[in-house]
Amino acid sequence: MKDCGLAIRKAYVDKLASQSYSLGVYDTIAPDTVNPPFLIISSQTSVENSDKQSYNFDVTIQFDIVYKTNKSGEVGQKSVDQWANELLVIIGVNVPDYPSASPDFKIVTRNMGTNFATFDYVDEAYIFRRVITMEHFVTQIL
Known about the structure:
single chain
């Protein structure tokens, strides 16, 4: 049995890069030198769900879209909503559109677990976020 964490995150990073997603995509944390907007792929969980014939996992992964604006600029959730829609179109809702985690793993099923918007006012700027959690059933390719 192998850990599928890196393979799943890499599959999403690669798919978003190949489809020219509008935002910078970072694994777990964005560098200090990068200012919003950006997407962070993080907060992954994995629980073994194997049977006698295969290694399987229930995996969740979180997509966090972060946008910062000053009071004089656009103040609202519109941009974050547009980036969330673009993200969901790229990562696909049908099996053929799922990102490839090969050669070691395959995403068998996937659905959106949560999708919520939030904002805060910090240092005279608005921080808008959209946090989307995807749930997966992943099998290891033997």
